Amino acid sequence: MQQQLVVVTGAASGIGEACAREFARQGATVVVADRDLAGAQRVATEISGHVVAMDIGSEQSVMDGAAQIFERIGSVDVLVNSAGVLQRTLPPSQLSMKEWDLVANVDLRGTYLCCAAFGTAMSERRRGAIVNIASVAGMRSGPLHSYGPAKAGVINLGECLAAEWGPKGVRVNTVSPGFTATPSLQKGIANHTLETENMSRSTALGRLVNAGEIAAAVFFLASPAASAITGVNLVVDCGYLVATPWGSYGGLRRN
Ligand SMILES: NC(=O)c1ccc[n+]([C@@H]2O[C@H](COP(=O)([O-])OP(=O)(O)OC[C@H]3O[C@@H](n4cnc5c(N)ncnc54)[C@H](O)[C@@H]3O)[C@@H](O)[C@H]2O)c1
């Protein structure tokens, strides 16, 4: 990753922060792009990276951020889209369209805006790699009526853009994390939406994923080691998807 310029959205916290640290550790120059400027500055200082203020919920903000990066820092080799917001687990009768729109706007539309801004430039240079962070929530049902469909959209978007830009030398892949120990998950635990023991018990490996494990998968997909891989959705979930159907048969054989 020497000499590579890597932009990570949502890099002020959680999975994005872990990705920024992993790429920096491997020798890349990292742009920490986030709407949380204080958090972005903290991470960028620690990894000797650049900070760019970007709210992916706004087309103008993404355009301005991308223009700033191209003018001030250089051409982007890798884009990681980790910026995202979670949703409260409300039934449709209580989930306002305002909340539904906010989640879909950031998680799906925002991911597309960033792909369009940076991927178009990559396709003109005829090289680059994009990794979008979706979720296992986009692959199965759950009480997340905006977040789930938005993440399913991110998975499909990865396939669409992989086919669009493959002929131009740009690879686009997706990583779908399961329950991952991050500040946003902690918030869900603190407000009793989620419970650590329940989440851990629902995986084959019996634990939460840590953010560094997601970063390792993202790094792999963006690296030359994955040069023939495009359009895939790599699940990193400690075996959540394979374990949950076993609940119908009394659960996993733990002993
Ligand atoms: N933690 C999990 O269990 C889990 C599981 C599956 C998928 N994910 C996905 O991983 C990604 C990162 O989640 P996390 O758990 O690290 O969350 P986090 O809250 O710790 O970090 C999210 C970061 O995104 C930034 N962000 C949010 N909205 C933004 C916007 N509009 N513009 C720019 N930056 C914005 C926040 O400021 C924050 O720095 C999200 O896309 C999330 O949906 C997380």
Provide an overview of this structure.
The chain has 255 residues and is an alpha/beta fold. The protein has helices at 14-25, 37-47, 59-72, 97-125, 147-165, 183-190, 196-201, 211-222, 240-243; strands at 5-9, 29-34, 50-53, 78-81, 128-133, 170-177, 180-181, 209-210, 233-236. Helix 5 (147-165) links the parallel strand 5 (128-133) and strand 6. The mean pLDDT is 97. The site of nicotinamide-adenine-dinucleotide has 30 residues, from helix 1, helix 4 and helix 6. Residues 9-10, 12-16, 34-36, 39, 54-57, 82-85, 106, 110, 133, 135, 177, 179-180, 182-185 line the site of nicotinamide-adenine-dinucleotide.
State the name of the first-level CATH class.
Alpha Beta
Distance between the termini: 43 Å
Largest sheet: 7 strands, parallel
Nearest-integer average pLDDT: 97
Q: Cofactors and ligands present? A: nicotinamide-adenine-dinucleotide
Poorly predicted regions are none
Q: What count of structural domains? A: 1
- Annotation, overall tally of beta strands: 9
Number of helices: 9
Proportion of strand residues: 15-25%
Strand order across the largest sheet: 3-2-1-4-5-6-9
CATH superfamily (homologous) name: NAD(P)-binding Rossmann-like Domain
Shape: globular
Order of helices and strands: EHEHEHEHEHEEHHEHEH
CATH fold topology = Rossmann fold
What's this, in brief?
With 255 residues, the protein is an alpha/beta fold. Helix content is 45%, strand content 16%.
